[in-house]
Write a structure and sequence with these properties.
The chain is mainly β. The protein is built from 1 helix and 10 strands; from the N terminus they run H-E-E-E-E-E-E-E-E-E-E. It has a 6-stranded antiparallel β-sheet with strand order 6-3-2-1-7-8, with no helix packed on it. A two-stranded antiparallel ribbon has the order 4-5. Bound molecules: zinc ion.
Length: 112
């Protein structure tokens, strides 16, 4: 099986990483990864792709009604946001004494 280089790079993303959306209607929006579904190749990013969802009435929310929640987007639509580069960047892996750490590929800043 051939693995696309880009997919492989993006799969280094983790929950709580700050990312920037690079395509679609939320392009340029930044947020924190709330959830990653690696099997489907999708992520949920704080404040991105928000849509209204009809909720059934529950004990906590007796009236039910519409709430706005984040829907998943393709993992390939986001890039890690590097504070130092001030832009979306690719993740590299640096190996030091058997421990691997994630770094910004552009400036080498440690991400973890
Ligand atoms: Zn950087």
């Amino acid at each position: 099986m051939k693995i696309d280089g880009e997919m492989k790079t993006n799969s280094k993303l983790k929950v709580n990483d700050n990312v920037i959306v690079i395509t679609g209607s939320d392009r340029g929006r930044k947020g924190k990864i709330l959830k990653i579904d690696r099997k489907k190749g999708r992520v949920i990013v704080e404040g991105v792709n928000k849509k209204n969802k009809n909720m059934r009435a529950t004990q906590e929310n007796p009236k039910g009604g519409k709430i706005s929640i984040e829907f998943p987007i393709a993992i390939s639509n986001v890039l890690l946001f590097c504070d130092k580069c001030k832009k979306g960047t690719r993740i590299g892996v640096q190996q030091k004494d058997k421990t691997k750490s994630r770094v910004c590929r552009a400036c080498g800043k440690s991400i973890d």
